[in-house]
Amino acid sequence: MHPNLAITPDYSLRQLNTFGIDARARAYLKVVSTADLGAVLADPVLAAMPRLVLGGGSNLLFTGDFDGLVLHMCMQGRGIAGATDSHTLVRAAAGENWHGLVQWTLAQGLGGLENLSLIPGTVGAAPIQNIGAYGTEIKDVFHSLTVFDMATGETRAMDAAACRFGYRDSVFKQSGGAGLVIVDVTFALPRAWRANLRYAELAQALDQAGVRDPDPQQVGDMVVAIRRRKLPDPAVIGNAGSFFKNPLVTGEHCARLLAAFPALVHHAQGDGGEKLAAGWLIDQCGWKGRRMGQAGVYEKQALVLVNHGGARGADVLALARAIQADVAERYGVALETEPVFV
Ligand SMILES: Cc1cc2nc3c(=O)[nH]c(=O)nc-3n(C[C@H](O)[C@H](O)[C@H](O)COP(=O)(O)OP(=O)(O)OC[C@H]3O[C@@H](n4cnc5c(N)ncnc54)[C@H](O)[C@@H]3O)c2cc1C
To answer: What are the structural domains of the chain?
Structure first.
């Protein structure tokens, strides 16, 4: 194996995934530079191994051991990268902690990322599923990113069009993104910042706290407070956030469901389609707070599956399948899972 790479064989991944699943990797490498990725490619043994690019492990479920090389993205660095007439450009390396970056931008007086406060994981993974919360998605503040192509060994820039962002989706989750490792991301933060309070829960919370005309830091602080109330802390109970995506259905399908279930929670999408609240559907099927073995549904938010301690990936999957079957039977809606299964 490559003499300059500190490869560790048979590595425990338990501390590297927020579900706390006890899986092992055949080999592990802490990646601190693009040169490390080039060195992996240059080594015939390493280059031939199956690869898993790992950030903070907060959006994946290990369903067994990983018989390959884990590339743990630990590249650090962040700063102002330039400016346009209307935006400040901020660039951060893939291994930077996402929430750390959000806080740093707020400390610089730069607004734009505040609604995405406290999402776990790394900067490099944020574009993968176009992370979103409280009415903002990465694509709204995105400028460009740099990838290292494991197929060719080349480094190149990609703009928003090339990333093909969608709801919890991007080219990196499709076949066109295979082998691309994100090494840094650049954000365009607006100089003429305006609070995004489209999400009613956030607007109401600020209002109740007596905060009128909030600045970016105040919005970020409120998002943190709401999330701490609602979501389980992975340091206390293993989870990967929302386990299911909110399903998109046609207006016609939604109208039929509303006739049978008048309390159905739905949001018009502007294109005639409707987004349903997966958490509401799961809750109505009686799953909130229930457990199957060591896997369970979080008592305060039915979208989140949790590890009560010692659950295997297969236990979490079995629970997810049972929930999907119930929702499909009662509502005729197919729930898609959000985390990546490894
Ligand atoms: C409590 C909790 C709350 C959450 N809330 C939200 C939320 O509000 N909104 C939201 O969108 N998500 C949320 N998530 C999901 C998760 O935090 C995000 O998807 C996050 O971006 C994942 O980052 P990560 O570094 O942990 O990625 P990982 O889990 O390590 O990886 C996820 C996927 O990205 C790939 N990947 C990682 N880094 C790179 C890279 N540099 N280049 C190429 N591929 C890469 C991996 O191979 C894997 O396929 C939440 C999770 C938890 C635990």
So the answer is: 8-73 (3.30.43.10), 78-190 (3.30.465.10), 238-341 (3.90.78.10)
